Amino acid sequence: MNIDRRKFVSRSFAGAAGILAGSHLKGLSAPGRLTAKQEEALSSKPEKYDLMREVMKYRKIDAHAHIYFADNSPREQLDFGERLGIEKQVISRYLSIMPGTPEQFREYNDLTIKAIKKYPDHLLGGFVLNPAYKKESLEEIKRCTDAGMIGPGELYYQVKINDPLYYPIIEKLIELKMIIFSHAECQLGVGGYRMKYNGYKEPNTSIPEDFVDIARRYPEGIFQYAHIGGGGDWEYMCKTLQHSPNVYVDTSGSNNAENMIDFAVELLGEDRLFFASDNSYHQSIGKILASNLTEAQKKKVFFDNYNNLLKKGGRNVD
Ligand SMILES: [Zn+2]
Known about the structure:
- This protein is of the alpha/beta class and 318 residues long.
- It folds into two domains: 5-43; 58-312, Metal-dependent hydrolases (TIM Barrel, Alpha-Beta Barrel), CATH 3.20.20.140.
- 42% of the residues lie in helices and 11% in strands.
- The protein is built from twelve helices and eight strands.
- The chain has helices spanning 5-21, 36-43, 51-57, 75-83, 102-118, 134-146, 167-175, 208-217, 234-241, 260-268, 281-289, 295-312; strands at residues 60-66, 86-92, 123-127, 151-152, 179-182, 222-225, 247-250, 273-274.
- The strands form two sheets. Strands 1-2-3-4 form a four-stranded parallel sheet.
- α5 (102-118) packs parallel to α6 and α6 (134-146) packs parallel to α7 (167-175).
- The longest helix is centred in the C-terminal third of the chain and has 18 residues, at 295-312.
- The protein is globular and about 85 Å long.
- The protein starts with a helix and ends in a 6-residue tail after the last helix.
- Zinc ion binds at residues 154, 183, 226-227.
C-alpha cells in the first residue's frame, strides 16, 4: 500500500474520531445512527504502512557522511548503509582540529583513501584541506583526486568559505567540476540572539551569508551547504540561500523538525536538496519519507539531484 505516513496517521485518526464522537457527529442519519461512511470507517482496518518497503523503494546517495579513526569504522557506517538501501556514501574525516596542518589533513585523507580502496562499491571519498596552506592544499587536491576521490568532503572551520584564502582552492575545484562542500552553522535566533564567535564557536565558522557571498563571486561554482538538520535555524538558512541558485543544501543532521524538508523545497525548489545523513542515518531518511514531497521529488532528493551534479565531472554513480 503506497500511502504516506501523514495520510496513514490522519486516516487512522479519522477512524478513531468517529468512534469517540459517536452520535455527536454531524451528518448522522438519525440520532445514534451512523452514516454509511462512518460505518465503513469503523469496520475497515487502518491501511498498513510498510516502513521498510518505503525505505528500500528509493535509490540513495548519502551526500555527507563520515568515517573515523576507530576499529569499527567504516564497517559500522557500511552496515547502516546496507540495511537502509544507501548505495553510496560520500565519506570524509572532517578536520575538526586546530590549526589543521598539512600533516593533519594528509593523515585524515589517508584514512579516507584506505576506506574507498577497501569498499569501492559503497564509498565515495571526499578530501579535507586547509586553505591557509595554499600550496599544500592544492597538492592535496591532486593527490586525492588521483587516488579516486570525487571532491572535497566536509571542509571545516579553519577558514571561512568566502575568505580570499579560499579563492585559489575554489577555482581549482571549479576547474575539476567538483561540488564545493563545507560545514556551516546558523544558530537559532531566539530573542534576537545570533551566532556569536566566542570561545564556543570557532571564529571562522561559515554561516549562510558567507555562502551567498562566495556563490555570487563564483556563479559557476556548485556549493553544498552542510546539514540543514544539524540543529541550527533551518528556516533562516533556507531564506538566506533562497536567491543563490548555485548553493545546494544537504538535509543531514540528527534534527527532524516537522516541515523542514517541505519548507526547504518550497524556498529552494526540488532540485537543490541532497539527501545526506551526517551519520544520523535513520532520522535523515525518516524526515524525507515523512515530508509531503511527491514520490518523484523524493527520488530527486534521495538520488538524482546529487548524481546529476556528479555527472558534470563524469563522476556519477550511473
Ligand atoms: Zn558539519
